[in-house]
Amino acid sequence: MSKSDPSVLLAVTQQLKDIPFEYLFVPHCIIVASWFPQLRNRFLFSYWVGFLAAAGGGTISSLLLMDSKRAPVALFAENKVGVIWTVSWWLVNFFPYQLVRKIAVLLPVRVVLKVCLNSLRASLVAARTQLAADLYPGVFAAPLVLGTIAGSGGKFCIDILTGATGELKGPSEFTVPGFAVRSGFAGALLYYLSVTQWHWLSPDEGRGLIVLLYVIHGLISDIAGRPLDFTLPIARLVAVAQGLTAVMLEIA
């Protein structure tokens, strides 16, 4: 694929650049706010768990990168981030008759909301992976870890909060990484190899590739009515490693 010629991947990235941030972030916040109906009665706890799901990956990766110019904490960088999240959270959880939530979970609406969510998530994974590679040249841990965190949706922090309050259902992401963490890692690895190491793609093409991967996966999963997990090979690899470790412990 020639970097000098227009491509599908470049077109995807350019289209995203042309869309105002608010047009993507509002749908993103609405669908995230609908994920925790069981916490509605706990008000501020619901607010902060939802915020971590909406912006936790970007916030944590920003703090770890410590570069307020190129990777600012979104909540501190612009007033509209906090305002949009607060209004979206309230509408989804407390609008009369749960009308906004009921509309948000309808399939056609949910598909549009998830396209916006996955576009922002993929763009953040690409941006954090690229910045980490620039700041720490030759060190693969930095882009892979920070790209994964950016795509995790704050799952690690959410697990800490929900675990401390008895709301955590199932194992923690620290011990059994779920789809958000695995797909974040897959996106970071794909971008890191194709853009920064092998130079097959330009940064904009790499971003377009991750966006297409996440968006197409989300569309197929919604249309099929069940999650189609492209990260299962990673999950199986982790399971094999855990099984081998258990065997070695028994032998020891």
Task: Walk me through this protein's architecture.
The chain is an all-alpha fold. The chain has one domain. 73% of the residues lie in helices and 0% in strands. The protein has 12 helices and no strands. The protein has helices spanning 8-18, 21-33, 44-65, 74-77, 79-94, 99-104, 107-135, 141-151, 155-164, 179-197, 203-224, 232-251. It is globular, with a radius of gyration of 19 Å. Residues 1-6 have low confidence and may be disordered. It is found in: Endomembrane system. The chain crosses the membrane at residues 21-39, 45-66, 73-92. GO terms for molecular function: identical protein binding; potassium channel activity.
Overview in brief:
By secondary structure, this protein is an all-alpha fold.
Please bin the fraction of helical residues. over 70%
List the total number of helices: 12
* Count of folded domains: 1
The structural class is mainly alpha
Beta-sheet strand percentage?
under 5%
Question: From the alpha-carbon coordinates, what is the Rg to the nearest angstrom?
Answer: 19 Å
- From the structure provided, what is the oligomeric state, counting identical versus distinct chains? single chain
Average pLDDT score:
91
Query: Outline, from the CA principal axes?
Result: globular
Q: Main β-sheet, in a few words?
A: none
End-to-end distance: 51 Å
The number of E-state strands comes to 0
Order of helices and strands: HHHHHHHHHHHH
Q: Give start-end ranges of low-pLDDT stretches.
A: 1-6
InterPro entries: TRIC_channel
Keywords: Ion channel, Ion transport, Membrane, Potassium, Potassium channel, Potassium transport, Transmembrane, Transmembrane helix, Transport
Membrane topology: Multi-pass membrane protein
Transmembrane segments: 21-39, 45-66, 73-92
